[in-house]
Amino acid sequence: MPMDDLLQPVRQFLQCATPSAWLAEAMKPERLAILLQDHLVCELKAAQTAMYLLRRYACDTSSAQTLLHWLQPFEAFAYRFNGDVDSLKQAEKLQKKIIGRSDFAHSDMIIDKMVLLIREELHHFCQVLEIMQARDIAYENITASRYAKGLISQCKTHEPQLLIDKLICGAYIEARSCERFAMLAPHVDETLGQFYVSLLRSEARHFSDYLELAQVIAGKDISARVQFFGALEAKLITDPDEDFKFHSGSPV
Ligand SMILES: [Fe+2]
Ligand SMILES: [Fe+2]
Fold first, then answer.
1. Is pTM, for the whole model, over 0.70?
2. Which of 55, 76, 197, 246 sits most deeply, having the most CB atoms within 10 A of its CB?
3. In Å, how far are 61, 92, 140, 223 from 136, measured between CA atoms?
4. Nearest partner of 217 among 174, 160, 142, 144, judged by Cα
5. What is the residue-averaged pLDDT of the chain?
6. Ligand 2 centroid vs 230 CA: distance in angstroms?
7. CA 71 to centroid of ligand 1, rounded, Å
8. Ligand (nearest to CA of 123)
9. How far does residue 7's CA lie from ligand 2's centre (Å)?
10. For residue 199, what is the enclosing H or E element?
11. Residue 239 Cα, ligand 1 centroid: separation in angstroms?
12. Counting ligands in written order, which one lies closest to the CA of residue 40?
């Protein structure tokens, strides 16, 4: 699929484009380390978000344990600086089948989409780490930007709306990531640019998978809620933001 066809639904879904001031900041050579360090953490967080949804809503108790073990080597690296890229590459694939909970009609759909998503995010994690190592950029524990917190804080607290809201937030985070990778790609060096382009297909699918899950699970029109989170997301992206990160707002 040509890149424009891939990006068209992503750009249509987002209520604003990334401000050119963010791109100008992101292109500065001194921003490369923070961009890659934050990207690395974002890949893990994407896997953790999907993992939470699987464990909370979709899988049986023994599968929930299997899933916890799957992420552990990546969390040990990110939070305790244990392990290396070779051992993480061995841990990317899930070795056991995940069994769905029988009391939730959408278990299998969540499992099919989220297990694939986690596998891809963990693969991206290893790819980012290799790119950092090739450039002598050390991994550091960095603080989270306001972006994801700002979205999640507006989720309702009652079910099933909480699940639907989280899925819509997931769609926005994935869509914005996809838009930013596409925007950055022509302005970074060739290796990094090719890597960003290689991420577009999976990130665009993650966006549409989250949105589809939200629509199917809601079983009714969710466009008002999508609009609500779209406006909030656009505000987080365009409002001034002192903390430069992959998902930050307009640099001040
Ligand atoms: Fe990813
Ligand atoms: Fe993703």
1. yes
2. 246
3. 41, 23, 12, 45
4. 160
5. 95
6. 18
7. 15
8. 1
9. 14
10. helix 190-218
11. 25
12. 1
Residues of the chain with pLDDT under 50: none
What single letter denotes the amino acid at residue 5? Answer: D
* Cα 175 to ligand 2 centre (Å): 8
Token output for 215:
């629509």
**Which ligand neighbours the alpha carbon of 206 most closely?**
2
- Give ∠ CA 206-209-212 in degrees, rounded to 5: 150
Find the 130 Cα to ligand 2 centroid distance in Å: 18
Distance of CA 251 from the midpoint of ligand 1 (Å)? 24
Q: What is the Cα–Cα distance from 214 to 88, expressed in whole angstroms?
A: 31
Tokens for 197, please give them.
């382009």
- The letter for the amino acid at 170 is G
Tens-place pLDDT, residues 173-219:
999 999 999 999 999 999 999 999 999 999 999 999 999 999 999 99
Q: Alpha-carbon distance 1 to 146, whole Å?
A: 33
The DSSP H or E segment spanning 250 is: strand 250-251
